[in-house]
Specification:
Antibiotic biosynthesis monooxygenase, monooxygenase activity, Alpha-Beta Plaits, alpha+beta, about 110 residues, oxidoreductase, monooxygenase, Dimeric_a/b-barrel, 5-stranded antiparallel beta sheet, globular
């Protein structure tokens, strides 16, 4: 399995609006995509910004590439969300998942 990890940052006054768009659209909507196993949205204050991290779990790198294409590392950010972000990773990082102790039920 593959974890796709991405970071985005907002000003505090935009954080709730960004999260309100992110959670219901991004992660639940992904469940229809073959090979997608689940995801997590993380949020924390970081200096004068709010940091968001999304972690999406994929069955394989091939499943991710089938959806995202050959440039699968590129961040995909809908235009309506860009106005909330003060900065963001242009590319996602991908890691092979080596252990899921206690988390396997979350990825069904």
């Amino acid at each position: 399995m593959i974890a796709r990890i991405w970071h985005g940052y907002t000003k505090p006054e935009h954080a709730d609006s960004y999260e309100a768009m992110l959670k219901p659209e991004l992660l639940p909507g992904m469940n229809k995509i073959p090979g997608y196993k689940g995801g997590i949205v993380l949020r924390r204050p970081l200096g004068d910004e709010i940091e968001f991290i999304t972690i999406m779990v994929w069955e394989s790198i091939e499943a991710l590439q089938a959806v995202a294409g050959p440039h699968y590392a590129a961040a995909i950010i809908p235009e309506d969300r860009l106005k909330f972000l003060s900065r963001y990773d242009k590319e996602s990082a991908h890691y092979e998942i080596r252990s899921l102790q206690g988390l396997t039920d979350l990825l069904r």
